[in-house]
Write a structure and sequence with these properties.
This protein is of the alpha+beta class. The chain has one domain: Anthranilate synthase. About 25% of the residues lie in helices and about 35% in strands. The protein is built from eight helices and 23 strands. The strands form two sheets. Strands 1, 2, 3, 5, 8, 9, 10, 11, 12, 13, 19, 22 and 23 form a 13-stranded mixed β-sheet that branches. Strands 4, 6, 7, 14, 15, 16, 17, 18, 20 and 21 form a ten-stranded antiparallel β-sheet that branches. β20 and β21 form a beta hairpin. The longest helix has 19 residues. The relative contact order is 0.19.
Amino acid sequence: MNVQALTVETSPIADIRQLILLLDGRAPLLWMRRNQGLAGIGCALRLEFSGPTRMTDAAAAWKQVVALATVTDPLARTGTGLLAFGAFAFDASSTQTSVLIVPEIIVGRDDGQCWVTRIWASDQSAPEIPLVLHPLGDEYRIVLLPGALPSDDFRSAVSSGIEAIRAQQVNKVVLARDLVGRVPAESDLRRAITKLALGYPDCWTYAIDGLIGSSPETLIRADNGSVNARVLAGTISRGADAEDDREAALTLATSSKDGDEHEFAVQSVLKSLRPHTSVLATSEIPFTVKLPNLWHLATDLEGTLSDGSTSLDLIAALHPTAAVAGTPTDAALALIRELEPFDRGRYAGPVGWVGADGDGEWAIALRCAQVAPTGAITAYAGCGIVLDSDPDRELAETKMKFRPIVEAFG
């Protein structure tokens, strides 16, 4: 792949507290949690990938981009200098392209420090894009309706998944369903992003190439030789009051069904990371994580890189985890293709950013929707199916998981 030489300059600026208002309302680029993160404007370079080697191809192409770049970065901290936003398709056979996008302007905010990075083709002049906070556009509300897998069909798919587990074809399979709609022409997508960021501040709120969501699950974070991840699998709805809520968390923590589902996910991440690490440790037992609408079972992993892998190399090794595909992986993917009558696109794929040194932060693209240039929107939600799963309960779980996107756009 031929890539162009880029010139990159980072400099400190006064604190900008509202990163979302900097964004292009039709083509937002954002990676943010608790009002800290990265906002991108414009496009200096766009790289597209597809097929089974899409992530390793991206890792190789990114090394070329970095080798040709001239970077001035006096801050030299996480998120400064040359970086790209990325979103990758879930399935190797997806018709949805995977992308790395290098913006013309990146504004970063972290722990009170704010900076701007300007990026341009080395044979051209530097971009002059003023940092202006643009007010949100007109309000709009849309209705998301069942897509290719309505409720009854999803229940049937879950039943088929349970039968496949009973027949020992798989140990676990993750099945998703879709909702579809359309945003009005010239809609300001920052409105939905703002609702997600305010409603789910502890999640990664992201917007990359029309993929918009708030994910609670860190796939991998690589920083100066260390790696960490958070595995989420096992879900229950929040209680109606404080007592019910405590009871819900306890029920989840002691559920054998959710515990089995969670253990499959943890073991798949450990298996993928061990070849790349010299030290790898996990929290002793799963713990519950509280979100505004549900509880998750969670396990944190921390390790030390031993082979010089970049974050792009690591997402290639990790994806797809048992949390979003199932186990064994190949059999689970085959069953997903059989039971889901749609292309997942970038849903449940890696989404995040990578820096010039290969470090980066990547989440799993959950609680999300893909907005096409035409305004068509598709949202996705899925559940881990194990032997003790119940089709009605799994359908209810997808409704909980759709809530962030349904509320953000509706």
